[in-house]
Amino acid sequence: MFEFEFMQHAFLGCTIVSVLAGTVGWFLILRRQAFAAHALSHIGFSGAAGAVWLGVSPLYGMIAFSLLAGLAMGSEAKGVVLSPHRDSMIGLVLAASLGLGTWFLHEANGASSMATTLLFGDVLGIDMPTLLALTGVAVLCLSGLVFLGRPLLFASLMPDVAQARGVPVRLTSLGFMAIAALACSACAEVSGALLAFSLMVGPAATALRLGLGPIAGLVSAVALALFLSWGGLALSWMTDIPVPFWIGLGAAACYGMACLVRR
Question: Where, by residue number, does the polypeptide cross the bilayer (predicted)?
């Protein structure tokens, strides 16, 4: 399968996205923000649909909408206490954005075919410009995590103590949600807007379920994300079943095995 250029691009894209998804996803699960990852990927669908309507690359529209939504979610953190209305706000924005995305596709006269591509991904259609864009997003996000890593970990585990020690908790949360939004946009290129969170949540949840420390947990989450995406591509090649199916099924299976190991 590596004789074909589209498969080479697919594996490169999956590698870039998996490293990003495993790293960002670990912090998302640690901070109990799995629903935010779910919402960001769906909100990105509306941005991608709007980009199709305007005649530009869907990836850029997805990044723009996800980034705005991520900043809005991050601003809901008031000091160390999350707003009790946070989940309600996320749900309402999610519902409105999906309706907006449907309208964008309707105006673009591409509701049937393009909706399938945006919602379920087209990893085999990744070209070189998209690979370069994904590389840029990954470098930006990972560089941001290197800068935010220590205060983010401190604020995630002991928010009260972190605030007392002078850590800018709200600013840290804002920066991280911007990184998470970019990561969700990148993941949607591989598994689509509907299942992008499976690549971010599954490996990270498995690593944390096993009780691994920060370094071991991050490495395990990245390794599992690579295993799921590469395995999904190989199985899709052999069975002609879409890649997102294997990624979602594999994520659930990995977490189930982690639960059995802990027991």
Answer: 6-30, 42-68, 88-105, 131-154, 174-200, 212-237, 243-261
